[in-house]
What does this fold into?
Amino acid sequence: MVWLIVAALVALVSGLALFVVGAATMERRGSTWRRVITATLLWVWAWGIAAMTLRSRARGGSDLNLDLLDTTNHLDLEDFWLNILLFAPVGILLAIRGTRFWVALLVGFCGSVAIEITQYAMRIGRTADINDVVSNTIGCVLGFALTAGIIAVAKRSSAPQPVVRSTA
It folds into this structure.
């Protein structure tokens, strides 16, 4: 519990510092408010993930699960959906930043692999699970795709419509 409080405080304080520095140097670096705000939110999200990754959780199982898409245990299926929801904000923020799809895919995949390797290497009572890599990547890609689609529709609907003149 102490770790979660410390991680939350570090996330908020460092996120605020990142925001202030980003806002102060925005003009000089040619950045935008959108980029400063999304960078700050991604930073705070990453700290939240770090806190959840490093906390101990005993739900049984082994240190490593390589059974792809094995959802015979209802807790595994629940974790699968929760991991999708957990990584969707990254995809949303990356789409808002204007990142390309393949970058969002790579961020979701590599971020998830880093989490699972950390859990396995630190042996903190968590299972490094191939299904978490799959579900986290799906979550990132889904968040990205939905947000990019909404942005595309919004841009299309706000674009000026050509004037059609009647020749009657």
